[in-house]
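User: Sequence recovery, please. Input:
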């Protein structure tokens, strides 16, 4: 059986650290992925490479290529090496981009079956996923903003209801207890639930709703944090809570509702029947999923009506519910607009770094530096202290922090210096989520209700990727949605390696500064005052016409 392990240390298998870093990141997304034997990293179908032959050819190319070539990857398949130059990206990729009128789930499934396309998720296909930490931080940030806005900065004694304990959703119980709440997570599959118990993200589990509610109510009364996994279907449990007149304080959902065939699990069907329909009858399965989502979202609306803070956590559940006839579905706000947009206006977003040494001490050294250098940034210092105390590393040790324009550059350049001085055992890779200021167009998630109405304009992520190529980043990717996300989004990813050289300092400075600079300009162009202010404060050459 294939082993999915990470490589650390200082022994190179490639011609330089730049290629070695990308190879280690590819190994890492599989090591921390949900079903690595199928190359699946998360979100039901988000893959690291098209198939095993493609994977092996990518590994061969990374091991043999020199710095003056660029490897071209199309939907997870390596196409060739082109002669460029040592300041050009080592890898550029375009994953899952379909022409407008064709960008539909059914066409994606056909192309996927023929082996012509694969979905890279956001950070799976471009080898940037760092395990659950990234999403824990995002979810924790959302809960913190809700605490600030609605609960006097304190979620102790509060009840959060959610569903889905998969690759990303599995972060919710830990983020909930970190924020001090009692959180009930409904999960339809025992394996997913067990995985979160095994890694310590989830504290208790049951298949009995009454027992789950007793535990939650006791924790709420004692103002103790608690996470409970309930084996069940959210399309049954949410309406049952409405029927019993139980209203949580906060409600969301992170089932893979975006994909009606391979993600969402409709009620009243066995997994055996679902697998049969996945093979033979997509239309019937889509209809069953839509029917369940109708009840699921109607219950969320009822909770909202009764006073709960209800939000969509970025899984298209409102979109499907709306299409299935729930006309008020969009009364539920999207988390980006409700809680995070002021941060994105200043290009503050999910920035990450990975210790290629595989030594947690390297992350500890960087944590210490951040606590000192960004001591007046409460979001960052609060997170670094909490994360170092509560989050176990998965795969290569990594850290995430919501840093913004120029701060990301300052950190990366400082770390490059630490590598050069030998204060870190090996180089460090810097990257970020695609859900970042200039990097994503997603009218039902990232760019919903933009101030100027530019929700569906996908020029920004394309410009973002070109800017990162022009700035000499090590890996640049353009992704669009696959499966149920087909036609809903386009985004860009970037990775830059701090190997301690002056060339790396130049790449980091240009790429990270331009990446966030473009993000501020995107929001300034949409008329957000925070972004206009940031552009002035940071001396950006933004050309203001309107
Ligand atoms: P996943 O496929 O790994 O896990 C989904 C889980 O939901 C599975 O364990 C499945 O059993 C469970 N599930 C499906 N239908 C259910 C139902 N009706 N009731 C109870 N459980 C059910 O997916 P993931 O990586 O955890 O991502 C989940 C969703 O969140 C995806 O749509 C993903 O795109 C989205 N996502 C959003 C953000 C964000 O922007 N905040 C970040 C990451 C992921």
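Assistant: Recovered sequence (546 residues):
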């Amino acid at each position: 059986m294939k082993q999915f392990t990470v490589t650390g240390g200082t022994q190179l298998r490639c011609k330089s650290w730049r290629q070695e870093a990308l190879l280690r990141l590819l190994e890492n997304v599989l090591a921390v992925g949900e079903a690595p034997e199928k190359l699946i990293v998360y979100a039901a179908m988000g893959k690291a490479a098209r198939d095993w032959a493609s994977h092996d050819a990518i590994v061969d190319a990374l091991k043999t290529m020199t710095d003056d070539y660029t490897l071209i990857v199309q939907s997870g398949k390596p196409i060739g090496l082109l002669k460029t130059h040592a300041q050009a990206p080592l890898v550029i990729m375009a994953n899952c981009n379909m022409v407008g009128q064709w960008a539909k789930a059914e066409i994606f499934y056909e192309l996927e079956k023929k082996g012509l396309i694969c979905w890279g998720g956001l950070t799976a296909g471009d080898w940037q996923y760092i395990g659950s930490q990234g999403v824990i931080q995002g979810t924790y940030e959302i809960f913190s903003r809700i605490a600030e806005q609605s609960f006097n900065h304190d979620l102790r004694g509060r009840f959060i209801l959610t569903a889905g304990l998969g690759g990303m959703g599995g972060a919710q119980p830990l983020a909930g207890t970190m924020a001090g709440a009692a959180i009930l997570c409904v999960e339809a599959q025992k394996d997913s639930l067990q995985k979160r118990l095994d890694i310590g993200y989830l504290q208790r589990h049951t298949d009995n709703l009454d027992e789950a509610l007793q535990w939650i109510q006791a924790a709420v009364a004692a103002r103790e944090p608690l996470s409970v996994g309930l084996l069940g279907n959210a399309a049954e449990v949410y309406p049952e809570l409405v029927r019993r007149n139980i209203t949580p304080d906060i409600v969301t959902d992170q089932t893979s509702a975006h994909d009606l065939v391979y993600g969402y699990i409709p009620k009243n069907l066995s997994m055996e029947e679902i697998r049969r329909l996945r093979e033979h009858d997509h239309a019937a399965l889509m209809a069953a999923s839509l029917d369940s989502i109708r009840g699921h979202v109607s219950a969320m609306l009822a909770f909202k009506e009764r006073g709960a803070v209800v939000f969509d956590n970025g899984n298209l559940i409102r979109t499907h519910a709306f299409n299935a006839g729930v006309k008020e579905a969009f009364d539920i706000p999207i988390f980006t607009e409700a809680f995070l947009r002021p941060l994105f206006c200043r290009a503050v977003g999910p920035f990450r770094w990975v210790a290629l040494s595989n030594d947690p001490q390297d992350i500890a050294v960087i944590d210490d530096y951040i606590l000192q250098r960004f001591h007046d940034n409460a979001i960052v210092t609060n997170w670094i202290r909490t994360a170092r105390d509560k989050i176990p590393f998965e795969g290569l040790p990594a850290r995430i922090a919501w840093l913004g324009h120029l701060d990301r550059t300052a950190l990366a350049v400082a770390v490059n210096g630490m590598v050069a001085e030998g204060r870190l055992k090996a180089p460090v890779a810097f990257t970020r989520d695609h859900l970042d200021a200039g990097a994503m167009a997603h009218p039902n998630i990232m760019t919903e209700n933009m101030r100027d109405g530019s929700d569906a304009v996908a020029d920004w992520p394309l410009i973002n990727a070109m800017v990162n190529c022009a700035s000499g980043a090590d890996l640049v990717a353009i992704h669009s949605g696959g499966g149920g996300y087909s036609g809903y989004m386009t985004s860009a990813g970037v990775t830059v390696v701090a190997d301690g050289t002056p060339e790396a300092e130049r790449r980091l400075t240009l790429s990270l500064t331009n990446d966030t600079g473009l993000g501020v300009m995107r929001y300034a162009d949409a008329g957000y005052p925070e972004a206009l202010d940031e552009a002035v404060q940071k001396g950006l050459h933004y050309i203001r016409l309107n």
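The chain has a mean pLDDT of 96.
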